[in-house]
Design a protein that fits this description.
The protein is mainly α. Helix 9 runs parallel beside helix 21 and helix 18 runs antiparallel to helix 19. The N terminus is likely disordered.
Length: about 525
């Protein structure tokens, strides 16, 4: 349930700090044309087809056409599988294209490295130490710059001083811990990976999986709350890699799966927002309150009625009195019953009588308020990680990033306004005599509907990132609710184990099949860790 308060300035909207480290938008790469030599990767399938000349022709004869919407344009060559069985080493046209794009990206990207030959164990140690220095510098600098930009937004709203903001950004515990974590992760990863490579004489997935699990212990440097955030994010990313690996092998595929995951995650988050706010990280809950501009007391009053308890009408009147209520709102509250079916719209937006006017005003204000935040999250990575591309074509790159920033702002505004529209419609139908009730699960259903609608506004390449951002928070909330009901048991240091397991999968993919990872994860690893 969302509510717009005229006394809460929309410029106060800020992205939670967990978003700074987990949801950093980087534009997708332009599509690369496929060379003819790429089709030689299916030689194994061709050989098996020669052994069975009576069978239908193999899928290797199907050329791969390049497009950023390859799932729509590529011919589905799975119909040509012999006896319907997936040939060994088979990759879908989309999978082959993703592999080539990843290869072209790595070949055409130049970033500074601190390296040392790993021909001896002493060289491996020096290489790991130099890599740790580089990783610390890159991650610390990026985090400090993001914190500085977000601090400037506070300064523009008259909060804090410039000196304090600069000191917190560059010398605060947040940036130092963040850099130390990545520095230690880089050290352990390079030491274990290259040490195993030298010891075993092989460079394969096993090295990556073992080294990733060992490097995951670096998460102990971070605070408990941040450890949970990283563990959730990386576990979801690792599952995304598993899904993409199966998809590229033609084992399964699901259209708009990212949008569905985002909708399901948002349904749980919005249910928790209204019914169990203590299961959401406090900082994230505060962000939701500021974005929707809903009084926390109104949410508490709504939970009271959903659970069947009577309202304290004196407290309700005091609440609306703080928000310049209209005459109609005052009259509605003075005549309402303490056992009303649901909290009326006069309490949700007492300064505006029209629900439609309130929803439009909310859309505009959220768009204006969140735009600077998304601009920071979009332009800072562009300047830090993609400066070469920005200098090469500044007008096109800047205009595209600006458009994507506006698009993301509109997406969030539609989400917020759409949720409030459903809440108001529910109240109006109840007042008209519809027997809808006021079930707690309605608030999750409203979240599902508005999320499934608004996500289609975002560019397709960003939907998976949004789903990866929401799902961990939804999973945490669901786990806490189930734990409270004694349906699940707690495990000590589960976040460390989850993070190590996730990084074992992710680094094994990065070692041999990096195209199955999301572009964000691949670029983050490559730019922060550098070469293995």
């Amino acid at each position: 349930m969302a509510n717009t308060s005229p006394q809460t300035p929309v410029q106060d909207i800020q992205e939670p700090s967990s978003l700074n480290s987990s949801y950093v938008t980087i534009e997708t790469l332009p599509t690369m044309p496929l060379p003819e030599s790429l089709h030689s990767s299916n030689q194994t399938t061709l050989d098996s087809a020669k052994k069975s000349p009576s069978k239908t022709r193999s899928s290797v004869d199907t050329p791969a056409r390049t497009s950023h919407r390859s799932h729509k344009l590529h011919k589905d060559d799975r119909v040509d599988w012999v006896d319907g069985k997936r040939p060994k080493g088979y990759r879908t046209p989309e999978g082959r294209e993703a592999a080539e794009k990843s290869k072209q990206y790595k070949a055409g990207t130049t970033i500074p490295h601190l390296v040392h030959p790993c021909t001896t164990y002493e060289g491996v140690l020096k290489h790991a130490f130099l890599g740790a220095i580089r990783s610390f510098g890159v991650s610390y600098g990026t985090k400090a710059l993001v914190n500085l930009c977000l601090g400037m937004l506070k300064l523009m709203n008259g909060k804090g001083s410039f000196g304090r903001i600069v000191a917190d950004a560059f010398t605060g515990r947040d940036a130092v811990r963040f850099g130390s974590f990545f520095g230690m992760f880089s050290f352990l990863w390079k030491l274990a990976n290259n040490g195993l490579k030298l010891y075993r004489g092989k460079d394969d997935r096993i090295n990556g999986a073992i080294a990733g699990a060992i490097a995951g212990l670096a998460i102990l440097i971070e605070s408990h709350e941040r450890r949970v955030t990283f563990a959730q994010q990386m576990f979801i990313r690792s599952m995304q890699g598993v899904y993409n690996a199966g998809k590229h092998r033609g084992q399964f595929s699901f259209r708009h799966g990212d949008a569905l995951l985002f909708a399901l995650g948002s349904a749980q988050v919005m249910y928790a927002y209204t019914m169990h706010p203590d299961t959401i990280p406090r900082e994230f809950f505060g962000f939701m309150l500021k974005t929707a501009r809903v009084p926390e007391e109104a949410l508490a009053f709504n939970r009271t009625r959903v659970r069947g308890f009577p309202l304290d009408l004196k407290q309700v009147r005091e609440l609306i009195g703080r928000y310049r209520p209209t005459d109609l709102a005052i009259q509605t509250v003075s005549t309402m019953s303490e056992t009303c079916d649901a909290l009326p719209c006069a309490v949700l937006h007492p300064w505006i009588d029209s629900c439609m006017t309130n929803d439009i005003e909310r859309f505009v204000q959220v768009t204006k308020g969140i735009f600077p935040v998304y601009a920071t999250l979009n332009f800072v990575p562009l300047v830090v990680l993609r400066m070469k591309r920005l200098m090469k074509d500044p007008i096109n790159v800047a205009s595209k990033t600006t458009f994507n920033t506006l698009r993301s702002s509109v997406f969030l505004a539609i989400f917020v306004a759409g949720y409030q529209t459903q809440i108001c419609a529910h109240r109006n139908l109840l007042r008209a005599g519809w027997p809808l009730g006021n079930s707690k699960y309605l608030y999750g259903l409203f979240g599902l509907v508005c999320a499934g609608t608004s996500i289609m506004v975002e560019q397709e390449s960003r939907r998976a990132e949004l789903a990866m951002y929401v799902l961990p928070k939804a999973a945490t909330s669901l786990y806490k609710i189930l734990y409270r009901k004694n349906w699940v048991k707690g495990v000590k240091h589960w976040e460390v184990m989850m993070f190590s397991f996730a990084m074992s999968l992710i680094m094994s993919f990065y070692q041999q099949e990096e195209q199955v990872l999301s572009p964000f994860v691949t670029r983050l690893i490559y730019h922060v860790l550098g070469r293995s």
